[in-house]
Design goal:
heterodimer, A: 204 residues, Aconitase, domain 4, 4-stranded antiparallel beta sheet, 4-stranded parallel beta sheet, B: 463 residues, alpha/beta, Aconitase, domain 3, Aconitase, Domain 2, 3 domains, 19 strands, 3-isopropylmalate dehydratase activity (chain A), EC 4.2.1.33 (chain A), branched-chain amino acid biosynthesis (chain A), 3-IsopropMal_deHydase_ssu (chain A)
Chain lengths: 204, 463
């Protein structure tokens, strides 16, 4: 997993509430058995005017110029600004895979759906929760935004806002740690647990 | 100390506690073809083996065709769907994981098959790379959806790191109105609390209305907990739960059964247990529900009108309503029962159990779908439900009414297989999500109960 320490970038403002993971990456792209290559189909139904399918040459597809991702002003943005309940719906990790593959490393929103929020941390993406009033300020500001995970701050327009993040998630994200490797350090604890557990719940 | 059911279930599974997170032991991992291939690949690349093979139980459901299947997986027309199912078959064979394959009569939607086979038992911790895993909470299990990285983590370690959710008690009391079912309760609650109303919470559904629901009805309700933002929806174990589990192929027997039942009977919130929040609803207030927009919270009763964005509570909601009306090509203040539909879908992990089919059959007996209905589909939740329905003669009622009677799978709930809506088509659907494009790009989904879907099929409009 990619480490996350600091990030400075312009931000793409996606001014919609309840953006679901079906919108982030439509189901036809979930048929892939790979983990990469989803970025070109990020927000596919909003981003292109035609119907997207796996295996199309996306560079030849007609773009929806109205959609914010297609605004040249936000080309190369690594931060996504969003509204309430971002990432709701399906648990598909293809959603953070698509966001990461496209180039987003941080998402700032007033709230996130639980499963999506969790999935972000597994893929080197930092989801940041900020109050609606701060979100309004960030949406209104068009310049570069700075994020410092260690300091837990977002800086924009000469203002610095703090944010909360679980200490363990922060540690793993800052060091790009492999969750499974870490858990396997506790395999003796797991084996000890199993002994007592299966004695008590012997029908399992 | 008095504990909630959720607290009890978590406590029973804690392997190790850290400051803000705990390592939780997982009893059962359900696997389907869409969210598992990358997890198996990760495991192989790291040279790791599954921690406990018996914990896993797999079934293909999202991509399977619901039409003719006599040529097996090799007969699936879409090569990418076919590859995904072949990959599941291969991964399960390679790792020695129990899989119910596509042409097995027990095959079906993972959240229907798990409880049906007794792979879901009360008190278990259950995960699956699918948000509707909350369904299994209806049996007093701790069940929630996870992403693919966590699927790999559970395969490799048998455990998962979890931060505890807060406890939300949703109490529903009173007698349900006629023709109102668990689906209407779920949609009504989501309409009241919003799709983020349960975010960060585990919901326990309590009250006499919930106790009076069948296990199938409780599964429908817990299934929709995620549409209210909660990963976990649970109902306490009672005599109905134990009756439902008894005799299932993977349920314990003999003295182990007695021992299990003794434990399961403790799976309820203690008197005086602390809930971070309690919300009470009156069953008599709930009428048949129909969604009108692109989020399950955009819902009204069958005798109501599409709301006007001018009456939205804030600017964000106003924009959401305007976007939704723009997408669904509907006008504010339209009576919901004046909206004509093109297709009807009865199925999905929400509403494809035998009870759902029986309700639909009661409505459809000696009736016929309206002329404007281009396609009406009934997709049972499993091959065994299909067989049961056929024993009861329900299939005849459906086909005589003009419905197509299909093989089990997720089908048009998310349209990953060939069952999808065309651009501009409007569907009365018993599934769980009405997001833009969910059932096919440019199509419109209205979530309803099986009763309302069947009635609306006959009327050709919401009814």
């Amino acid at each position: 997993m990619n480490k996350f320490t600091t990030l400075t970038s312009i931000a793409t403002p996606l001014d919609r509430a309840n953006v679901d993971t079906d919108a982030i990456i439509p189901k036809q792209f979930l048929k892939s058995i790979k983990r990469s290559g989803f970025g070109v189909n990020l927000f596919d139904e909003w981003r292109y005017l035609d119907h997207g399918e796996v295996g199309m040459d996306n560079s030849k597809r007609p773009l929806n110029k109205e959609f914010i991702l297609n605004n040249p002003k936000y080309k190369g943005a690594k931060i996504l600004l969003a509204r309430e309940n971002f990432g709701c719906g399906s648990s598909r990790e293809h959603a953070p895979w698509a966001l990461e593959d496209y180039g987003f490393r941080a998402i700032i929103a007033p709230s996130f759906a639980d499963i999506f929020y969790n999935n972000c941390f597994k893929n080197g993406i930092l989801p940041i929760v900020q109050d609606n009033s701060i979100m309004d300020a960030l949406f209104a500001f068009n310049g570069e935004i700075g994020i410092d995970l260690d300091a837990q701050t977002v800086t924009a327009n000469n203002e610095t806002y703090t944010f909360k993040v679980d200490a363990e998630r922060k540690r793993r994200l800052m060091n790009g740690l492999d969750d499974i490797g870490l858990t396997l350090q506790y395999q003796d604890d797991i084996k000890t647990f199993e002994k007592t557990y299966f004695k008590q719940y012997s029908w399992l | 100390m008095a504990q909630t059911l959720y607290d009890k279930l978590i406590s029973a599974h804690i392997v190790r506690e850290e400051e803000t997170t705990s390592l939780i032991y997982i009893d059962r991992q359900l696997i389907h073809e869409v969210t598992s291939p990358q997890a198996f690949e990760g495991l192989q690349l790291a040279g790791r083996k599954p921690w406990r093979i018996e914990a896993s139980f797999a079934v293909p459901d999202h991509n399977v065709p619901t039409t003719e299947r006599s040529s097996g997986v090799s007969g699936i027309e879409d090569p990418i769907s076919k590859l995904q199912i072949e990959t599941l078959d291969k991964n399960c064979a390679d790792f020695g994981i129990t899989e119910i394959e596509m042409n097995d009569i027990r095959q079906g939607i993972v959240h229907v098959v798990g409880p049906e086979q007794g792979a879901t038992l009360p008190g278990m911790s259950i995960v699956c790379g699918d948000s509707h895993t909350s369904t299994h909470g209806a049996l007093g299990a701790l069940a929630f959806g996870i992403g693919t990285s966590e699927v790999e983590h559970v395969l490799a370690t048998g455990c998962l790191w979890q931060s505890k959710s807060k406890n939300l008690n949703i109490e529903v009391t009173g007698i349900l109105n006629e023709n109102v079912s668990a689906k209407d309760i779920a949609l009504y609650i989501i309409g009241q609390i919003g799709t983020a109303g349960g975010t960060g919470f585990a919901i326990e559904f309590t009250g006499d209305t919930i106790q009076n629901l069948s296990i199938e009805g409780r599964m429908t309700l817990c299934n929709m907990a995620i549409e209210a933002g909660a990963r976990v929806g649970i109902v306490a174990v009672d005599a109905k739960t134990i009756d439902y589990v008894q005799g299932r192929p993977l349920a314990p027997t003999g003295t182990e059964w007695d021992k299990a039942v003794n434990y399961w009977q403790t799976l309820h919130s203690d008197e005086g247990a602390f809930f971070d929040k309690t919300l009470c609803f009156n069953a008599e207030d709930i009428k048949p529900q129909v969604t009108w927009g692109t989020s399950p919270e955009m819902v009204v009763a069958i005798d109501e009108y599409i709301p006007n964005p001018n009456n939205a509570k804030n600017a964000v909601e106003k924009t959401s309503w305007e976007n939704a009306l723009n997408y669904t090509q509907l006008t504010a203040d339209t009576k919901i029962s004046d909206i004509q539909i093109d297709k009807v879908f009865i199925g999905s992990c929400t509403n494809a159990r035998i009870e759902d089919l029986r309700i639909a059959a009661t409505v459809l007996k000696d009736q016929h779908i309206a002329d404007n209905i281009k396609l009406a589909l009934i997709v049972p939740g499993s091959g065994l439900i299909k067989k049961q329905a056929e024993v009861e003669g329900l299939d005849k009622i459906f086909t005589q009414a003009g419905f197509e009677w299909r093989e089990a799978g997720c089908s048009m709930c998310l349209a990953m297989n060939a069952d999808k809506l065309e651009v501009g088509e409007r569907c009365a659907s018993t599934s769980n999500r009405n997001f833009e494009g969910r059932q096919g790009q440019g199509s419109f989904t209205h979530l309803v109960s099986p009763y309302t879907a069947a009635k609306s099929a006959i009327a050709g409009r919401f009814c």
